[in-house]
């Protein structure tokens, strides 16, 4: 039985059927991804180098700074929703066009992930080994300095088995995150959601054969059981983003409404979450709260269908988004090394000198991430093409596999 046409299944105005290239919405998503990556960097930097907030002595400006640099975990939820929307669209489109295949899909996903992840693991190992060689396994490397980065000794998590487990997306399942690179935890979630979503579609897609449904159910069940409840339950956040593809476009949503909607969604999403409101005391509920508001925010941004060819705004957004994945994966081992080098046993008070010094450190980390990205993330299509050549497949224009 043939699958129903996309227009019948989704409706002619579904977001999945609307092209996203060369419109402002694409630049908005690039900006959101870049902001999320910088938020993670800001969270680790402030919590590692600066003392915790003293509410009794803090003015509104200082409170705002601490609030804006306390959104690292929330930023990861934004990544999940964005990933669900973008990767979900690719999978759904292949199902609609009846050309779904695991091999090209996995090549696309793994080339994207491993092109940055493997160098990041190697670089992280070099920073950690160098840091422990020069500064010892105590201090921040021993989890003995109060900070937002390291809470346990990293030496036991710096072996080859742990490194391999992280490369295979098994951190927090079979192995800990590798060395000082705590942000690697989210890649387990991300990769296995890439696997769960197609398995889910195999189960429920209209017109699929019975054997496909059974295979999808079996695979889905095995992965969920293997991952455990914590990772599997958070799949709901990723699915929120994928679900955006089924929603209709809204006509005549003007620029002012989009801006006001963005601001209106920012505060109810992030303020209660960052301040651990009583009704969000459970971590999953807090994550769902942020994921839900992020989904609404992205839905509003997707309505901006003005052309965006040229101009500084889309170019800047694309550049920041272009190394956001690298920044996320490589910043923390270098940050920990610099902490051990510059401020081994204490943290800064907030003053002019520490702010200026901190600005230099942030600039150095951004430059480092940009340099790594130029040799990794920027070459993803090139790596993918080489893999296709080895496998004897053809890479279609735009980076998708024909």
In short:
The longest helix has 34 residues, at 102-135. It is built from 16 helices and no strands.
Tell me about this structure.
The chain has helices at 6-10, 24-49, 60-68, 72-96, 102-135, 160-167, 185-204, 210-227, 229-233, 235-243, 255-274, 283-301, 312-322, 324-342, 352-375, 380-391. Helices cover 66% and strands 0% of the residues. It has one domain (6-399). It is mostly helical and 402 residues long. Residues 395-402 have low confidence and may be disordered. The chain has 16 helices and no strands.
What keywords describe this structure?
402 residues; mainly alpha; 16 helices; 66% helix; globular
Q: How are the SSEs placed, and which strands pair?
A:
Blueprint: H1 6-10, H2 24-49, H3 60-68, H4 72-96, H5 102-135, H6 160-167, H7 185-204, H8 210-227, H9 229-233, H10 235-243, H11 255-274, H12 283-301, H13 312-322, H14 324-342, H15 352-375, H16 380-391
Helix pairs in contact: 2-4, 2-13, 2-14, 4-7, 4-10, 4-12, 5-14, 5-16, 7-8, 10-12, 11-12, 14-15
